[in-house]
Amino acid sequence: MKKNTRGPAKRPALRQEPITVTIDHLNVDGIGVGRHENKEILIAGTLPGEDVLAAIDHEGQRRIIGKLIKVLRRSRQRVTPGCKLAKNCSGCPLIHLGYRHQLDFKRGMIEDALSHYPTLGHVTVHAVWSSEETFGYRTIAKLAIAKVHGKARVGLYKRGSHQVLDIGNCPQQHPLINQIAQALREEIEKQDIYVYNPVSRRGLLRYVAIRVSPQANKALVTLVTTERNYREMTHLAKWLKKKVPQIIGVHQNINASTGNVIFGSTTVKVIGAGDLIDQVGDIRLRLSPTSFFQVNNRQAARIYAQVQSWADLGPKDTAVDLYCGVGGIAMHLATSGAKVTGIEINEDAIFNAKAAAELNELGNCRFIVGDAGEILHDMQRELSPLKVAVVNPPRGGCSEEIIATLGQLRPQTLIYVSCNPYSLGRDLHLLTQQGFTVEELQPVDMFPQTAHVESVVRLRMDNSEKV
């Protein structure tokens, strides 16, 4: 008789019954948070004060991920989402919250971020500037591609999974983005394009990135593939442009990695224009396929105008723009005639910025590629006396080196443009220790229906003699 070496048979997992949860608050991602059996439970699509029926999707040692089944007690702040995919799509976590209340939530998030620092107790957070367009404002889309039973899907990942949810005629996207996405679906099926499968790690086409100029109603399309395939991508690109004449150029980005990063390091032009000319405020910008830029042009223009007003530069002044990206803020400052230097580590962005400075005939605006902290430190003598410094860092905030160097440079005015309230709070606290005083904080709603919020902050340096 053979010995049983397989061990005892596993008992089938017990099917858990739905649970009732009271939602206490929204987290920084706009997800409802409650408690269940002494654990935090996160349930998307819920609001504070609501009682909801939920299923448990995943349970960890300290946290549970739940899925909304039904709202039992409805918040007065709840609205009916203007999208049939809202329940499963992760793109608009606040779409069920009335817009006025979205603004209140974002203001409260900034106030909470500052409340951790006694040095910021005097700071008043102004009411959030609302967006004129709460839908249809997104001018940039990075969409995943899948093929299921021969049908192409172009969209976002389904909440809590790696399944691509086809977004159809998404109300958040600029109409031209939706038009291009639909043309791509049709051509993938018609041409039987080999779409990448993340499970088997085989296939060609992975993502599409679409960048639109709302003023010109033109678009730049980037097809992200696992390898260079000139013939197939050229054929696809020509058909896309034929279906959507507003496409001025199609590029191919090669990303052979198995991770979730969208872009690889190599981008080549397939057909048409190499970049897109867009106008924001008074400045024309040159945008390449993979360079970063804001998704809401109108709100970006308001931020630029506010920075320009607070800077109050003249022809004899000097200013620096750190983390300058494609140069939008720096060039707006340069229209004053001041000498402006923009610093950015991304080479493509600096290439765009230099080209745009020529396009706008701003010879007093220069751009330097490299680490902002290192370059700022090395240029202290050249930049002094510095009237205005602008910082617009990524979500992680400013480096300690930049904060220390700003303290040494002592610009009259420092303007901080932030996309993360919590790194902003930390950095403002550190800047006060360098001698800066926070004078004004203006939040801007760049991303309606999401939990993201921008802030523009004016700080003043006490330039009295140190004892």
UniProtKB/TrEMBL annotation:
<dbReference type="InterPro" id="IPR002792">
    <property type="entry name" value="TRAM_dom"/>
</dbReference>
<dbReference type="GO" id="GO:0070041">
    <property type="term" value="F:rRNA (uridine-C5-)-methyltransferase activity"/>
</dbReference>
<feature type="binding site">
    <location>
        <position position="344"/>
    </location>
    <ligand>
        <name>S-adenosyl-L-methionine</name>
    </ligand>
</feature>
<dbReference type="InterPro" id="IPR030390">
    <property type="entry name" value="MeTrfase_TrmA_AS"/>
</dbReference>
<feature type="domain" description="TRAM">
    <location>
        <begin position="12"/>
        <end position="70"/>
    </location>
</feature>
<feature type="binding site">
    <location>
        <position position="294"/>
    </location>
    <ligand>
        <name>S-adenosyl-L-methionine</name>
    </ligand>
</feature>
<keyword id="KW-0949">S-adenosyl-L-methionine</keyword>
<feature type="active site">
    <location>
        <position position="419"/>
    </location>
</feature>
<dbReference type="InterPro" id="IPR012340">
    <property type="entry name" value="NA-bd_OB-fold"/>
</dbReference>
<dbReference type="InterPro" id="IPR010280">
    <property type="entry name" value="U5_MeTrfase_fam"/>
</dbReference>
<feature type="binding site">
    <location>
        <position position="392"/>
    </location>
    <ligand>
        <name>S-adenosyl-L-methionine</name>
    </ligand>
</feature>
<comment type="similarity">
    <text>Belongs to the class I-like SAM-binding methyltransferase superfamily. RNA M5U methyltransferase family.</text>
</comment>
<keyword id="KW-0808">Transferase</keyword>
<feature type="binding site">
    <location>
        <position position="323"/>
    </location>
    <ligand>
        <name>S-adenosyl-L-methionine</name>
    </ligand>
</feature>
<dbReference type="GO" id="GO:0070475">
    <property type="term" value="P:rRNA base methylation"/>
</dbReference>
<dbReference type="InterPro" id="IPR029063">
    <property type="entry name" value="SAM-dependent_MTases_sf"/>
</dbReference>
<feature type="active site" description="Nucleophile">
    <location>
        <position position="419"/>
    </location>
</feature>
<keyword id="KW-0489">Methyltransferase</keyword>
<dbReference type="InterPro" id="IPR030391">
    <property type="entry name" value="MeTrfase_TrmA_CS"/>
</dbReference>
<protein>
    <submittedName>
        <fullName>RNA methyltransferase, TrmA family</fullName>
    </submittedName>
</protein>
<dbReference type="Pfam" id="PF05958">
    <property type="entry name" value="tRNA_U5-meth_tr"/>
</dbReference>
